[in-house]
Amino acid sequence: MGIRDMYKVLAQKDLKPPIADLAQLPSNCMLEIDLMGTSMLWARMRRLLTEDYNETAARSAGMQLASYMRSLFVGDGRTVTVHVDGGYNAEKQQEHEKRAGDAVKTLEKLDTVLQHMKSRSNHGKHTCKTVRDKIKKTLSALFVLTQADKDSLCEAMSSFDPNNITVCRCATEADLCIARSLDRELVPGHKLVVSSDSDLLVYLPVDRVLRSIPKTTSFAWYTKADVRQALQLPSDQHLLLLGIVAANDYGRNVRSLGIVSNCDIIRDIPLGSIEDMLESYVAAASAQVDWQVDRVLFDASKRVMHDLVDTPLPLVDRSNQLFLDRLHEFRGLISQRHENARQARALKQQDDLPFYVAPHSHQNQFRNHFTSKDTILRTQKVVDLNA
């Protein structure tokens, strides 16, 4: 997610980032890709994994994804480093708990829809394509990568084109790993960041981000200078401060103070160390909301976004059993639907099934495009009610 509503506010501020021509990317550069943070790549990978999930699905998806990334980015000396999220960190624990709660609600809704589909199937009725597509989308949202899936995925991407594609198994969050990589960069501008997460825009080592545009296959350049100009912030330090105090993956914002309100406060804060600027913000925000803002509220965000450190938690493998159970149930209902349709077609084609024509009518009242009795289901027995 990154910083909540950041891209929405930038769009409201009429920031129109230029569409990137991937063929014209700088030569001999290295692209640092946040795999799960780039919406287009993550959606493609999840679709490949969930359409026909089995033990080899992750390896197959990794090969196809590596081929796709090579076609997009590799060439003219450019190489790719794919960053894959590792375990959880303590700073993001609250966000993971929220997502777990959302997954429970999603599961309850999915069970309700599947039960309705099962009831209709038992009564010989089919479920419309819109509902089936909604079930597929919800199933995809429930899917999580297990450690075995990640191992197979990374091994496949690494072996596809080892000269041009490198895979980084991050200790925790990929965006933090990318920021650390750029912080150690010897040649400024040699590494380019590819991500849809807005929080990478505020890290000091990051100058610009190549963002995948939602619901398209295009990318757009978001530069730090353009973002600062749209938000009317005087320096990169002020933009970093906005990222720390705004609602993000690592902490909450001050209640009633969104991005626009925070920008109004932050742009008047004198430039200095991030600690001094944060203290000034706490004082100004407390005066605006009429209660004392707790400085501790921003400790986790500052530790990650400014200090570039986090606290890894013990690695716990995640289970896909809930997803697999619902996937098997959905596939069973689809198979039952196909069988019901086959039986209906067989019954309809029986020679001894009478087909009735309305009195004094020369056409089938139920199939108006037939104009003659002789053309109505030639294999069926026609009963004329005029007789």
Automatic annotation (TrEMBL):
SUPFAM superfamilies: PIN domain-like
Protein name as catalogued: Uncharacterized protein
Domain of life the protein comes from: Eukaryota
Organism encoding this protein: Mortierella alpina
